[in-house]
Design goal:
3 helices; mainly alpha; globular
């Protein structure tokens, strides 16, 4: 994970672990990773303080994929 403070502003180990597992599962292995995607949305909403952030926007921002991919 990126740790250059100018490029990466988070020091959240929970988020880093989730992202690593999600990238490996969804992108590398091509698995649907539905539960991991749901965890990403919950964690992102919690961190932002905005519970209305669309799930598709969260996933696209983090993974660059459509929510159905």
């Amino acid at each position: 994970m990126e740790r250059d403070p100018e490029r990466y502003r988070s020091a959240d180990d929970e988020y880093d672990c989730l992202m690593l597992e999600l990238v490996l599962s969804a992108i590398v292995l091509g698995e649907p990773a539905k539960e991991l995607r749901q965890q990403l949305v919950r964690l992102t909403r919690k961190r932002s303080g905005n519970r209305e952030v669309p799930a598709g926007a969260v996933q696209h921002s983090a993974l660059g994929l459509r929510s159905g991919s």
